[in-house]
Input
Amino acid sequence: MRCIIARERVMGEKDCIFCRIANGEIPSKTLYEDEEFKVILDAGPATRGHALILPKSHYANLYELPDEAAVKVMLLAKKMAVFMTEKLGCDGFNLVQNNGKAAGQTVFHFHLHLIPRYKDDGQTLGWKPLELKQEELEEIKNIIIG
Ligand code: AMP
Ligand code: ZN
Output
């Protein structure tokens, strides 16, 4: 166990709170753990059961996450969502993943939010829709794929 932690710490960032949680240096409310991931309850939850999937290796964000890890994260998210929905009796489920300060990321170690939703839970994870003209949408499309 010590070896695994030491190896991950070399790969990670010394003062990264999620590296320390994911590798067991700091205790957490753990819902699931395997060799590569830990799923913990969020300490400042949006709703009852709000959890985070943390890779044990340090990747700052989605851009740094290797493809193989991305596949595993989504499979794990699906399993956790099904399991948690059954256990918590929630009415819906959000997956949220923030990258960069501008997008609301506050901890710079990749994590995927698992957010159970309840009818009338009072949370809003939405956005205010922009009113764009067809030409503007076309221009954006061309920037992305043009
Ligand atoms: P984000 O804004 O996407 O970077 O999300 C960071 C999340 O991490 C927030 O929902 C925090 O409540 C949560 N968080 C921060 N520190 C801890 C911690 N020590 N244990 C559990 N969750 C944490
Ligand atoms: Zn980290």
